[in-house]
Amino acid sequence: MRKVMTMFRRFLMTVLFVFAFMTTFFAVSGVEAQDISSWAKERDLSLKQLMLTFKSLPKEKAEKTSLSAAEQIKNKPKSLEDAFDWTKYPKQKVTATGYTAGAESTGKQPHHPDYGITYSGVKVKRDLYSTVAADPSVFPIGTILFIPDYGYGVVADTGSAIKGNRLDLYYETVEDVYKEWGKKTLDVYVVKKGNGTITEEDLLKLNENKSMQVFRQKYKMAKE
């Protein structure tokens, strides 16, 4: 008698499970029971085979989700280095170091009236288009350079030690200088030669260029 009751309970639990599963499936998918029945009869599927078919549905959904994630990675915006053909611009080999607005680089403290102000008069900036220091006889003020692993550099500053083919790249902290750059000898690309001037408005327009905002996120995230 106990065995009969046990078998009956198992049968009842199975029926309830199937009923609950089918109810949920119909509610989510919008498919009616009659449609399922007709489909199963056409293929001569048993209840067990039908359940196995339904169990495969979440797996297919997961596979589609994984595929979607892979597509998102594939479609992720390229870096500046890969997004454009830099070989079409004139290149020049330079030795580049990094500097900050602080006393360790400029001798000025935050309370100094000219703290963070470049030779051209604009404020130092680390952004999609950052301010850099150069020898004006090589790269006139306002020159836009593309510097691999740094980004766009706009010549806005000078320095007593920055002579010839040397650049000083602006960073917000000394830690950033050592962690992200240090000292490198590399080829830079002259995107646009300057005319000797650069203004805050010019820098703002460059950094707010709508077509370039996808690349700007890199520099915004670095600050956060």
From TrEMBL:
One of its GO terms (biological process) is peptidoglycan turnover. The keyword Signal applies. Transmembrane segments: none annotated. One of its GO terms (cellular component) is outer membrane. SUPFAM superfamilies: Barwin-like endoglucanases (SSF50685). Gene3D superfamilies: RlpA-like domain. CDD domains: DPBB_YuiC-like. This is Cell wall-binding protein YocH. It comes from Bacillus paralicheniformis.
